[in-house]
5 -methylthioadenosine S-adenosylhomocysteine nucleosidase-like isoform X1 (Paramuricea clavata), 308 residues
Amino acid sequence: MSWQGNNRVATPPELNFTLKTESDFNNQPHDWPRNEIQSQLPTDILLITANIHESSACYSYMKPVRQWYCKKLRRCVYFGQFGDNDDQNVKVALMKCELGYNEGKLAMKNAAEILKPKIALFVGTCASKEPEKVKLGDVVISAKLGTYDREVMPDGTVDYRGAKVSETVAPLILSAADGWEPPLKDLNSLNVEVYRDAVILSGSDDNHKRQEDLVDYCRDGLGLEMKSADIYAAANDLKMEWAVVKGVSSFAGSGDMTKPWQSFASTMAASVVYNMFKNPVVLEDWPHNEETQDAKGNYSFLIGMKLP
């Protein structure tokens, strides 16, 4: 059975493995610090998610996983590794952040101070306004992030602002799906596509008029979500590398019609992230966060960029 035109299908195709569930997260957390936790620091990758579907997908690609409760962060952090067999030496930390601006931004800054990652990745789901172009389950990687930051021009028009990933991250995005296969039991069940060099529109503003204005302004935006912009702001302040990788789980205005796709889309996004960073040589020469504070010219955070 083909799922090529899946935008009206209620149930996603079957995965080729069993996802971890919320019960797998309920191991007794360890106090901070311990010798074991210190061996995981500094981490290479910080994965940031916003809900259990996204966390479970990322968790499923980490091994072995240990859970610690960090009092300063006031939340659990999950430590594991990316890699195949004995080559599991890409250190990964997973943390769930709230959607609120102050909470998410503060948590991100504290996490960067404690974990000192080389890159922060915002992984999970998004909606899309392009059902004729993008399918449910497809993965969108943001080379540009459009936000609600705006400037009113002298003539009364409004220009929205955005940001680009750095020149270091951009080539990785373009090769993100090289050698990748979606984790499907039947590879013919769905033609999952990865949209690289895309624009994702993000912001936590509850003003629906501003959301609509941003969508109208940036017609090239493939993904819509309300999670990454605030946490990105913290990453930008810290001069950290960052990227947004999202699976499409709904379409703008569809409401709860595509709930079954949230877990599936999160898994597709997490599998692409794993494909990008499973080889330790990728991040081998990247500095940890504490080493980037005085760096000059290594980052391309174009906050004032006008989106096309």
Q: What stands out?
A: The two ends are 39 Å apart (CA to CA). The chain has seven helices and eleven strands.
